[in-house]
Structure formats: C-alpha cells, structure tokens
Write a structure and sequence with these properties.
Structural class: alpha+beta
Oligomer: single chain
Strand content: 5-15%
Order of helices and strands: HHHHEHEHEEEHHEEHHHHHHHHH
Number of helices: 17
Radius of gyration: 21 Å
Strand order of the largest sheet: 1-2-5-4-3
Shape: globular
Largest sheet: 5 strands, mixed
Length: 369
C-alpha cells in the first residue's frame, strides 16, 4: 500500500493496520509523507479515534504528537499576526479577502492547525491596492520575496518576516483569484467581496470567500499544480471534501451555474470526482451529469493542465492579444534576476548568464515532455 493511500484511509476513519515496516525510518518516512500531503495535523486525532494502539509502531504517536504541538503553537502565533495585519490594512483603508488555506482553516476545520499551509493568501481589488498593501507590510517590517513573472504570468506579490518566537509569517498579496492567466479573471474581486463571510476567530476585519466561490477556487488550484504531479495532494482534496459536505441544495445550484457560466465545468468536475474517489465525498444526484454535459462543450479541459506545455498553451489561448502572449513567454523564460539567484542559491554577477541558460534549458525540457 502506498503511504498516501494509507493516510487517506486513516482520514476517512477506516480502521486499518499499519502496512509498513516497524523501524524508526519507516515511521519517519510516513511522517514525512503526511507533511508533504499537508495532513499531519489531522492524522493524530484520527489515529486516536480509530486505530488500535497495538496495531501501530510505538514511536509513531509520540513523534506525531511533537509535530502537532509545534504546528498548534505556530498557528496560535499566525492567528494573532493575521488579526493584527488585517487591522493595519483596514486602518490604511484597504479591503482584503482571505482565500484558500487560511480562509478554509478558520471556516471549515475544527482546529485551524489541522489545515497546514505555508502562507496567508490575501486578495485585493487590483494591482494598485496590492502594491499599497505591500507598502503597509514593508513599514511593519516585512521583506519582499522575489517572485516568478511580471504583469501576465504572476498576479501576486509576496512578503515575509520572522516574529520574536521564530515563527515566519508569509503573506501573498493577490490582485487576481488565481495566478494562471486562464483562471485569473474568472472570479472578480467585487463578486467575491459581495458574497464574502466573516471569520470571527480572526477578528472584526477578517472576511473570507464564500463556500461556493471557495469550491471553485479549490478545483482550479489543484489543476494549477498538475504539471508537478501535485493535483491530488490530500489536503487539497480534503478541502473539496469538507466544502461539499456543508453544501445545501441552493449552494449546489449556485456552484453548478457558476462553473458552467465561467466555462470550467470540466475543471470542477475533475476536482469533485477526485475528492469522491479518495474521500468518498457525497455528491447530490444530477450534479455530475450536469457538469459532464456542460464540460463536453468547453475548450478548457483538465487534460490541458497535465503538462507544463499544455498549461502554457491554455494560458496563451486565454490571452486576448499577441503582445500579452509574447510577454507571457518572455516572463516564463526570463524571470527577474533576484528570483533566479534565489532559486539556484547563487550570487549575481558573471554567473547570471549561465543561470539564465540553465533556467531556459529546464523550462524547454519540461515543456517538451
């Protein structure tokens, strides 16, 4: 049995025996897999509830407990910081929406540290608003993170700082709901803000995207990472599973209409089917049939995201003019020098041309696969 399959079975609440070796390396390997899949926080309570202690290696629970305690402590610090910076943004007259991991952690999960993530995603009305927000963060001690892309490939700026407890806080400031050009304009800020819901645990200024929009974002996000083989990462499928579990008939109707009108029925269908396959998600009668029928007439299919080449072609087709298409290719091949040197851990200088050759070669190689 693969480690991801065993982790999924535990999250489903199935009583399943330990199928791996019993040595320290075997335990560590499974813990690393749980971390890579983003489900370390949920694993311990599931094991405590469903698994016979005698069926597990003695070292597993203590090691997992230490990790979860660390994640819970870090989450407490992140919660305080998130509430604080949202207050700073509000004081500067900037409206922001929480989306993806943090929004889901504080709206769906019993404990926010169960929803692992490495950053906080904030969506702003436009690029100018995100730039103003970056200035607010800079005055507060945050430092910018070099990012791939320019005006077409990338729709965010990132910054971070480390607090006095050693916890790193990373903020991603978006001006589009998804970085890929093919998805970037599907969910305008005004539409998301009109339906946003309060997240009281993060203070009076915390607004998160509504569940219907959250599900669409989750289905798009998993395909964004398909070329890396990450589209079925367990935490992303579990997000979809939890979102659908709370849907009413009205939510399903709104979601299907939204998917069809935005031309992403196939994208959403793929996400729902993956969550059902792994977590046995319950879907209402007719929803799969409706999305399947609509997807047959759409040009944007999940298969387009299986490779970097297919994703690039989809993004090129989504752009309106050849100038934007040329910029997209240029931004893929010639990223900012600071991003390149950070990626390869090198210094700027005479080696920079060699780094660009290495980068371009890797991109072309991936695109030809």
């Amino acid at each position: 049995m693969e480690q991801a399959d065993w982790l999924a079975a535990v999250l489903r609440g199935e009583c399943i025996d330990w199928p791996f070796g019993w040595g320290p390396r075997d335990c560590e390997s499974v813990l690393l897999a749980a971390q890579a899949q983003g489900v370390s926080g949920m694993l311990l309570p599931r094991l405590d509830r469903y698994a016979d202690p005698a069926s597990l290696p003695a070292a597993l629970r203590p090691a997992l407990r230490r990790r979860v305690r660390g994640e819970a402590a870090a989450e407490f610090s992140r919660q305080i910081e998130c509430e604080r910076v949202l207050g700073l943004l509000a004081g500067a007259g900037l409206s922001a929406l929480l989306m993806k991991g943090t929004a889901l952690a504080y709206s769906l999960y019993p404990e926010p540290h169960w929803r692992s993530r490495c950053d906080t995603d904030l969506l702003f009305a436009d690029r100018d608003a995100a730039s103003l927000a970056l200035e607010v963060f800079a005055r507060d001690g945050y430092r910018p993170i070099p990012a791939l892309g320019g005006t077409v490939l990338n729709h965010e700026v990132c910054c971070f700082k480390q607090d006095r407890f050693g916890v790193t806080h990373s903020m991603d400031l978006h001006w589009a709901a998804n970085n890929l050009p093919v998805f970037a304009d599907l969910l305008p800020f005004a539409e998301l803000a009109a339906a946003a819901a309060l997240l009281p645990r993060l203070g009076p200024h915390a607004l998160g995207v509504a569940p219907v929009h959250g599900l669409l974002l989750a289905c798009m996000h998993r395909l964004q990472h398909a070329p890396e083989g990450q589209s079925n990462r367990l935490i992303w499928l579990y997000d979809i599973h939890l979102l659908t579990a709370g849907f009413s008939a009205a939510d399903w109707s709104a979601f299907s209409r939204l998917a069809m009108t935005r031309g992403v029925s196939g994208v959403c269908l793929a996400g729902l089917m993956a969550a059902r396959r792994v977590f046995r998600s319950t879907l209402p009668p007719g929803i799969l049939e409706a999305l399947t029928q609509a997807a047959a007439a759409e040009w944007l299919t999940p298969a387009r995201f299986a490779t970097l080449r297919g994703q690039l072609i989809a993004n090129l087709l989504a752009l309106d003019d050849w100038g934007s298409r040329r910029r997209l290719v240029r931004e893929h091949l010639f990223p900012d020098a600071a991003y390149l040197t950070q990626t390869y851990g090198a210094r700027q200088g005479w080696r920079l041309p060699l780094l660009y050759l290495r980068w371009i070669g890797s991109k072309i190689g991936k695109a030809l696969r």
